[in-house]
Amino acid sequence: MEADNITFKAFENEKETPHLESLRSLISDGLSEPYSIYVYRYFLHQWGDLCYLALDGENLIGVVICKLEKHREHGANRGYIAMLVVKEEYRGRGLATKLVKMAIDAMILRNADEVVLETEVTNTGAIKLYEHLGFLRSKRLHRYYLNGNSAFRLVLYLKSNAEALASADHGHEHIDLDADGDTEITND
Amino acid sequence: MANNSGGFNDAFARLHVSEKSIEGNQITTTTISSPSSTSYRDVTQLFRQACQGLDVGQLVKDPNFTLFEAVGALEIMDPKMDSGLLKPGEDDTPSELYQPVLPEEIIGIMDQLLSSEMSWHDGAALSQTVFTCLYIDNLLSLNPSSLEEAKFNLPPSETHQPGSPTYQLLHVVLRAYCVGLIKCCERVNLQILAEHTYEEEDFVTQTYNVSLLDFITVAEINKLLVSAIEYVDSTAAPWPNNIKMALKARLAFRKLFLTELSRDVKEMVDKRSNWDGCITLLSTIGITRNLGTAVPSVFSIAVQRKLASTVPPRPIVQIPFEEAFTIVSRLCKDAKEILRVLTYSGATNLMTFFLRFTARKPQPSTYVRSLLQTLFFSNHVALGRMQISHILLEDVKELCLPADDLFDPRNELSEMPSDTRFQIHQRMKWFVERAGNSYITLYRTICQNRSRLRRNLCHLIVDWDALQIECEEIDGELQQLIKEEPVLHNDNISYAFSLSSWVYHYKLRQMEWIIFLGFELEVYLPHEFAGMYWYLQYFLRTRLQHLERIRHFVHPGVAVDSPLAATRSKECIASAQDIANAQATVNFTLLEAAALQELCSAMIFLYTALARLGLVKTPPQPYSTDVMRYELRMKPFLTIGCPDVVPFEDFKALVDNPDIETIEMLEMASENTKEGRKNFDLLSKMSATSSHALLCEEGYRLNLREYLRSCIGAGVAIVMLLKAIKTNTVADAEVEIDQGSYHPWFPIPRISSKKRPPLPAVPPTGR
Fold first, then answer.
1. Whole-number Å distance between alpha carbons of B726 and B730
2. Separation CA B671–CA B674 (nearest Å)
């Protein structure tokens, strides 16, 4: 397991081969929520360029999956980090931070106004990672996960409100699942 | 996502064409007739044909297939998602249901069922809890529509000859208990669905189309339970007395619990509740707990396969009996306690009760918080017998005591639009409706879980801000109608603006709660503490000034020549006692706000000093900027007219106080903690009546003690920091934020030396 063998790349034009299956099992082992194939396709086919892989040789050892779209019709151009997993034996080497940074940098290039995500309140490692990049906890979500755990919503502003509004263009598809204006994946 | 899907699109489009053209393409159709005469067509071949037009990896996505659908989709044959999946070697034919022979086993099953039931109350789904009991499943699987049908369907067994005690154990005792428990679940579901709670988050009301004995009355079920008790009591039941007692206590509890869960508000107003009966029986259940023998085999996750569910399989949740016992005991005590609100003793007392009751740790159960909402307001009636307008106007009077003429009952009698009384009435009617809605929403919001409370308050303040502006206008019109006498206040001639003053006061309190809850919910990081306490201090200072103004304008005078003077009703004229009461309320509120403000000021200095000394660190934060993070933090308040958000540079200077030496800063913080303590001590000495804590004195005093603990804790931290600075040992110091031992709104830094173990937290004061 030489650190030198570890490479990073965008999922981009890979379609579903060759990493989709290993990606699914990596995430399925690492996260508590079960996700259907549709969830992966939803993200990877629309925002494959915001998905980054960490590889040790040919082996997939880490992944970040994101999206970027208008939050409500006149809202901010909101980046969303949906999943972040690094294989247990590779943790503690800053791989996750590197993956997240690559995703945020790509979002910045694509004119994102903000980046948001949710994480379990007990996942101190992930919370610390994001907070060390500049994220703040904006709210707590009671019993957000299927396993009954609560979440923190973490938010990173990339532009100030005024700037974001000035650069907003209209008429984009949007997801609005939550009454108070947040995109939340609720498993129901 | 690929756009080029031409070949597929053509073929796909044909799936939608009419039957005729399908026939034209000579597609074999298999029609399956169903009762509703819907015809089905086999499209396998067409689908295969359509797929030919797709490249590998190419995706066809309907624009309406959103993340919500993707997340809600289940994948068949994936064990994490497919609840019907049989693992290799697993058999779908249910093994024969074990039929207990010992009364101890029945006690055990009853207690396991209680654990399941309370796991459901605690947020798990029925499919993970009550429904996993094979006896409940057996009883409900034939969808009973009458009591006779609500029975176990078990194969004959040699050990269970009809009429034998073992048979009766199952078919009389356990059956009655199960029927009672299912009905309890139905009552709880009805209550929760009647009020505002968050599905899946607070509670899962989903029943998977299984009827929870909806058609069987509580009276019938109570009879069934009584006859089971009678059987256990009879000589036909050959068990020792302690076993009999254990069984009877469980059956009797079920009967009383069901009765309480079925009460309507009117019965509660008539004081017919008997939660004490439940509590007494619970203690017997606790004592006889060890007589039971658990029978784990009668609970199975396999039941989930049969349930009409769109969610992935979820594991069985059955909390330990001790935990379930605590939850059910607390539920009964809390349900009894909330009946206190029916003894109305003024609006401020009512609000204090809501605030204290819902802030309790752990928070009262969803069921009880839902019931509290019903007690407060249901069917257009408040507290089972009052008009909400009465409570609303009392709340206004208790704090601001506006001019008498606003409340004159004669106003309502006037029908002439040009008449002053008519015009006053129109405006007060508007206020009651407009503010009444916001007022009811506020009470209901306070009943939500703490995370939702904070989020919803962020929305409520926008409404209260608008309400304030609208009320200012109405106040202006009212002061002319009643010929209010202006008063000199802060070198200005001004009027009372009673209604908008009351609204503004509530708005400020809600703004404070948003930030306080941020601390309670651990939304802020230690390096943000100083800034967030600065905002609290700022809101509190604004409220203190506002309260001073309110005190100045309590019961404003009107011109002697007011046209209303001659016809004024005597009953609307405030007594000297009313005026004294309003002034006392303002004074009490001032003291409380001042105490909080002192403690907040101490916290600003303390956490700023910790940052300066490098004991509280800001993470690197390579992305975004401080200005943007400030904007994010202030988001709930950005649209609020008054008080406004201060520019970042000013904020930074005000929090950092670069001109003040650290030692001096800590000494100032020390003064603030002492002042805060003095104020909290004064508050502790006040009676429950003066504190408006008549309905919740114990909880109110506990809260005060927690504030005091935070004052003392902050004082200790300040002393240790000063000592470290003076002895040049700051480099050896370590800081850990203690969220748990103090008031949840005032977490305290525990300062210790890296070389020595940390000092314990301040011990609890007089609990």
1. 9
2. 5
- Structure-block tokens of residue B445: 């919001």
Contact A41 B459 (CB under 8 A): no
* Minimal C-alpha gap between B319 and chain A (Å): 13
Predicted confidence at residue B37, as pLDDT, reads 54
C-alpha–C-alpha distance, residues B168 and B152, integer Å? 12
Q: Which two tokens stand for residue B225?
A: 């339970």
Q: Give the side-chain half-sphere CA count within 13 A for B430.
A: 16
Q: Would you say how long chain A is, in residues?
A: 188
Per-residue pLDDT tens for B413-457? 999 999 999 999 999 999 999 999 999 999 999 999 999 999 999
For A3-166, the fitting CATH number among 3.40.640.10, 3.40.525.10, 3.10.310.30, 3.40.630.30 is 3.40.630.30
Residue B409 carries which side chain, given as an amino acid letter? P
Q: Which helix (H) or strand (E) holds B320?
A: none
- In this predicted model, what pLDDT tens digit does every residue of B169-187 receive, in sequence order? 999 999 999 999 999 999 9
Q: Is A2 on the interface with B (CB under 8 A)?
A: no
- The arithmetic mean of pLDDT across residues B595-611, rounded, is 98
Q: Cβ–Cβ contacts within 10 Å for residue A28, how many?
A: 15
Instruction: Give B169's DSSP letter.
Output: I
Chain-centre distance for alpha carbon B428? 32
Domain ranges of chain B: 6-72, 103-319, 401-574, 604-614+649-767
The four Cα atoms B40, B46, B48, B49 give a dihedral, to 10 degrees, of: 180
CA distance B610 to chain A (A): 19
Contacts of A37 in chain B (CB under 8 A): 75
Contacts of A35 in chain B (CB under 8 A): 71
Q: How far is CA B317 from the centre of its chain?
A: 22
Task: Return the residue matching tokens 């409370």.
Answer: B453
- Non-local CB neighbours of B579 within 8 Å, separated by 6+ positions: B401, B554, B555
CA distance B383 to B695: 14
Q: Which of A36, A121, A157 sits opposite B81 (nearest CB)?
A: A36
Per cent of chain B over pLDDT 90 is: 80
What are the pLDDT digits (tens) for B681-693? 999 999 999 999 9
**Inter-CA distances, B572 with B397, B419, B477, Å:** 12, 19, 20
Residue with tokens 């019109």: B477
| Cα distance between residue B609 and residue B719, in whole Å | 12
Mean pLDDT of B625-633: 96
> In whole angstroms, what is the distance from residue A187 CA to residue A185 CA?
6
Closest residue on chain A to B633 (Cα):
A138
Question: At B220, which helix (H) or strand (E)?
Answer: helix B218-233
SS3 B378: strand
Measured between CB atoms, which of B72, B458, B521 is closest to A188?
B72
* Cα–Cα distance list, B279 to B112, B249, B489 (Å): 19, 11, 56
Does the structure show a pLDDT above 90 at A23? no
Please return the burial class of B551, using the count of CB atoms within 10 Å of its CB with bins 0-12, 13-18 and 19+. Answer: middle
Min Cα separation B309/chain A (Å): 10
Identity at B310, one-letter amino acid code: T
Compare all CA atoms of chain B with the CA of A138 and give the residue at the minimum distance.
B523
Q: Picking from A162-176, B227-241, B361-375, which range would have the lowest pLDDT averaged per residue?
A: A162-176
The DSSP 8-state label assigned to residue B332 in this structure reads H
d(CA B259, CA B187): 10
Neighbours of B609 (CB within 10 A): 28
What ipTM goes with this model?
0.88
Binding-face residues of A in 65-124 toward B, CB within 8 A:
67, 104, 121
pLDDT band at A166 (very low <50, low <70, confident <90, very high): low
Q: Which residues, at least 6 apart from B34, have a Cβ–Cβ distance to it below 8 Å?
A: B40
List the domain boundaries for chain A.
3-166
